[in-house]
């Protein structure tokens, strides 16, 4: 074990491990299931770091933030994506780039399935959140809170690139020269917000719930929309479209300002006390 490895060294080794695991997953798992299986590679990378590479013990496990529920942040995490998607899909509808329609199976069925999907999906996204907001973020705090949430968000975005470039199942529509920068910027900004909730509520759970809520509401609004072109949602109203990036970046900027005002504070969940 490399118990003397610096925090930055741990982050570098973790990220390289997660990328290698992602590449192995892509090479071994056929079909669309690779996207779901790949979500767990940051979790596996975390386990490798904790159990094999560094062996940080109880303090290392506590730093992941799973032992605190952070209940006060759950409502905010569930509601925060709604105004963003109302803004971007509202503009898509108003401009005629997309038409609002009743989803297949009816609105009632979709809304009934939403809370079930949120509950089950939160445990899926934990595979990513344990890695990037649980393991990586606390080990970047010595660089400053603002830098920590930005870097962890960027690393999370970059970790997606193998599944984007090497499979046809994730953001495959549109020009990579347009989709990739939009995706990296949006995911980095979203990571700032996830990190802000992680640090504010001393818990990983609000960040994981927000992460899943973003995915779930994106699916809901997409189900309500028939786009004039698939590129209208990919470039504008989708998960990393320009109309999603703009309000996400504004909110991320607010989070960075709030973190700056609280410089010097170190949350108990991160220290493990």
Notes on the protein architecture:
This protein has helices spanning 7-28, 33-38, 41-53, 57-62, 74-79, 81-94, 107-139, 145-159, 161-166, 176-200, 205-223, 230-237, 242-261, 268-271, and strands at 98-100, 225-227. It has a two-stranded antiparallel sheet. The chain is mainly alpha-helical. Helix 1 (7-28) crosses helix 3 (41-53), helix 6 packs parallel to helix 11 (205-223) and helix 8 (145-159) packs across helix 10 (176-200). It has one domain. The protein is built from 14 helices and two strands, in the order ααααααβαααααβααα. The chain is globular.
For the terminal residues, how far apart are their CA atoms?
A: 24 Å
Helical coverage, percent range: over 70%
Instruction: Strand order, main sheet: write it out.
Output: 1-2
* Total separate domains: 1
Radius of gyration: 19 Å
Task: Report the major sheet.
Answer: 2 strands, antiparallel
Provide a count of the helices: 14
Residue share in β-strands: under 5%
* Helix-strand makeup class: mainly alpha
State mean pLDDT (0 to 100 scale): 90
**SSE run:** HHHHHHEHHHHHEHHH
Task: Indicate the low-confidence ranges by residue numbers.
Answer: 264-269
Number of strands: 2
Shape: globular
């Amino acid at each position: 074990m490399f118990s003397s490895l610096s925090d930055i060294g741990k982050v570098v080794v973790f990220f390289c491990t997660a990328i290698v695991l992602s590449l192995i997953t892509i090479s071994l798992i056929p079909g669309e299931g690779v996207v779901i299986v790949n979500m767990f590679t940051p979790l596996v990378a975390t386990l490798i770091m904790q159990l094999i590479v560094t062996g940080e013990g109880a303090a290392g496990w506590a730093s992941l933030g799973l032992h605190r529920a952070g209940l006060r942040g759950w409502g905010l995490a569930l509601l925060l994506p709604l105004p963003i998607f109302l803004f971007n899909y509202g503009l898509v509808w108003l401009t005629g780039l997309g038409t609002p329609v009743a989803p297949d199976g009816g609105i009632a069925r979709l809304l009934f399935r939403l809370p079930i999907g949120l509950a089950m999906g939160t445990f899926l996204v934990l595979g990513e959140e344990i890695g990037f907001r649980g393991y990586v973020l606390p080990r970047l705090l010595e660089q400053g809170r603002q830098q920590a949430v930005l870097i962890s968000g960027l690393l999370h975005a970059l970790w997606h690139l193998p599944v984007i470039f090497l499979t046809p199942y994730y953001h495959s529509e549109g020009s990579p020269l347009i989709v990739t920068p939009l995706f990296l910027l949006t995911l980095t900004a979203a990571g700032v917000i996830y990190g802000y909730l992680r640090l504010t509520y001393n818990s990983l759970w609000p960040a994981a719930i927000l992460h899943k809520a973003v995915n779930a509401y994106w699916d809901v609004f997409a189900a309500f929309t028939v786009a004039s072109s698939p590129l209208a949602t990919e470039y504008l109203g989708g998960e990393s479209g320009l109309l999603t990036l703009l309000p996400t970046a504004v909110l991320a900027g607010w989070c960075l300002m709030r973190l700056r005002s609280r410089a010097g504070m170190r949350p108990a969940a991160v220290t493990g006390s």
